Amino acid sequence: KLLKMLDDVLLGEVPPWVKVALASFIFFGSIDTFWHKWNGIEMCGLIHSIIAGAFTVLILIDDISNNRGYPQFCTEINPPCLLAEVLPMITVGYAVFDVIVGLRSNRVDYFLHGVILFGFMGVSCMYGMSHHLSYGLSMEWSTIFLNLRALKKNWIDIVFVVTFVATRIFLVPYLWWIWVKGYERADDATKACLAGSEILYHSVIFAGMFFNLLNLYWGQIIVRRLYAKIRSGNAVLCKEWKPEPGQNTANVNENPESFAKRD
After folding, report:
1. With a threshold of 0.85, does the pTM exceed it?
2. Which of 136, 145, 207, 204 is nearest to 168 (CA)?
3. Burial (0-12, 13-18, 19+ Cβ within 10 Å), 198
4. Average pLDDT of the chain?
């Protein structure tokens, strides 16, 4: 009763999606303040990626069991999964931390990622169309292992590369393409099911192109680093690497990629 009274007094007129986003921001802010890192792992990123990854699997199971198609433009007869609506709302609150990480590390790509993610998810939530973006967050599966790489395990590196390529290079761009083409081929009655359909359509086009290009940019960096590791005799991938007789090992222990770059 106390929580409901506080909600009525402080957030009575605030839309539900803003309440969820605010709660998400407070939650991740608390994690960032009191449990920023564990064994070198940034806990905010890890927890959000686990939530997103788990939710996308549960959403898929629910959509299959309730015979929902993709994309689901009209929802009056068969409403979307509740988790599909909530997940982007949670991500709106979390997106602030991408901006913070970008500012902390002076990385323009992280900063733009957070700003556009915040705006993109916010627009969909504002029009009650957040469920359209839930499957796009399946890319967070790779982020789980990106954060776990601080543990410096070979199998984590391998799973990270596999999930990055599978979700960010193939799956999500494919889903984005299906959504765009599905909207363009839809009749007026179907498009009428979408509140703010034109705004949502152009937001999907812009954000999809941005994230797909950004993932391609990150992807080529990952591939180049993996290639450098392989050329350096698996100095990083193998725990006990020994040079061949006569091999120049200067600075390899300090920077295992440097030897490959000089080869």
Report:
1. no
2. 136
3. exposed
4. 79
